[in-house]
Specification:
The protein is α/β, with parallel strands linked by helices. The protein contains 7 helices and 14 strands. Bound molecules: NADP nicotinamide-adenine-dinucleotide phosphate.
Length: 276
């Protein structure tokens, strides 16, 4: 039997199938060239942790108790609706070192095998383009991205090392400046992606990219899975690491679903917030 969850908002209360929940949002129809639809998805504990830091090595990690198959299925449904994914140099380094799994292609996981055909039926290209944000420009393009012939853009700041910029360009990858210092700025990145023809942009990068995209007013929807656990941990990461955000961080709840069978016996909420 298909996994079922409960809709708490908007009314009426209802029992619904998990599979297909986010596909029904039709995100791929919501953007235009002038205003690409930008969405992100984060997974947090009740005390706001999205990652913990190992106090000995300083490395951050996503605690296993935060992740569930249900959340991952919804992540894949969001990815299936994107024509461009925004990732970052840190993820590509972790992927190359085998510290994180590959999430860059539709259909790469059995839990999302049906999404290849779903994308074809809805007239989307087989795979989304990949926009890589990086200040260091130290990463390698994964073999899977080359094999699937995904379009790749590298975004960095004007202060990036010119030798590295030239090296990437020699390899045939466009390097586009989208920030005045070394960092990419959301307010420059998103309009540039719109001009490149992308309408449905899924931010799968970490908190620092979320920070700049929200701060610039370019995020349209935040999907957040909130697991019902108090995580603790002396050193941790939260979703927005920058200074106080103010009204730019005020969101409107669009819908809320409840899964009583979440991680390790704790429940979880699947919330969607609009930022307009
Ligand atoms: N719970 C969740 O939903 C969730 C989601 C995402 C991440 N996480 C976790 O949170 C922790 C920290 O996340 P993270 O390491 O992915 O992300 P991060 O600390 O926000 O950023 C990592 C890398 O992204 C690049 N970057 C970020 N912002 C940039 C900008 N404005 N301009 C240019 N480059 C930029 C940099 O790459 P270069 O070094 O190449 O310059 C940076 O090293 C990790 O443990 C991760 O697993 C959790």
């Amino acid at each position: 039997m298909q996994k079922q969850i409960f809709r708490l908002y908007p009314p009426p209360f209802a029992q619904v199938n998990l599979a297909g929940l986010y596909l029904d949002h039709r995100l791929y129809t919501l953007g235009t060239a002038d205003k690409p639809f930008v969405y992100a998805n984060f997974l947090a504990s009740l005390d706001g942790r999205i990652a913990l830091e190992d106090i000995h090595t300083g490395e951050t990690y996503l605690p296993k108790s935060l992740t569930t198959p249900a959340d991952f299925r919804l992540f894949l449904e969001l990815e299936a609706q994107a024509d461009c994914l925004i990732t970052h140099g840190g993820y590509l380094r972790a992927l190359a070192q085998g510290r994180l799994g590959n999430i860059l292609q539709i259909g790469a996981h059995p839990r999302g095998a049906d999404l290849v055909e779903w994308r074809r039926r809805h007239g989307l290209a087989p795979q989304p383009a990949i926009a890589i944000a990086s200040a260091s420009l130290d990463f390698i393009i994964p073999e899977s991205v080359r094999r699937h012939r995904q379009t790749v853009y590298i975004f960095t700041g004007e202060g990036a090392d010119p030798v590295k910029v030239a090296a990437w360009r020699r390899e045939g990858y466009p390097v586009i400046f989208a920030g005045r210092g070394e960092m990419v700025e959301g307010g420059r990145l998103i309009p540039l992606l719109g001009r490149l023809g992308y309408r449905s942009i899924y931010l799968i990068a970490g908190p620092r990219m979320l920070d700049t995209v929200v701060r610039s007013g370019c995020l349209h929807r935040l999907y957040q899975t909130i697991t019902h656990q108090l995580m603790g941990g002396e050193l941790f990461r939260t979703m927005v690491p920058g200074p106080e955000l103010g009204p730019a961080g005020h969101l409107t709840l669009r819908s809320l679903y409840y899964d009583p069978a979440g991680p390790g016996g704790a429940g979880q909420w699947f919330a969607q917030f609009d930022n307009q």
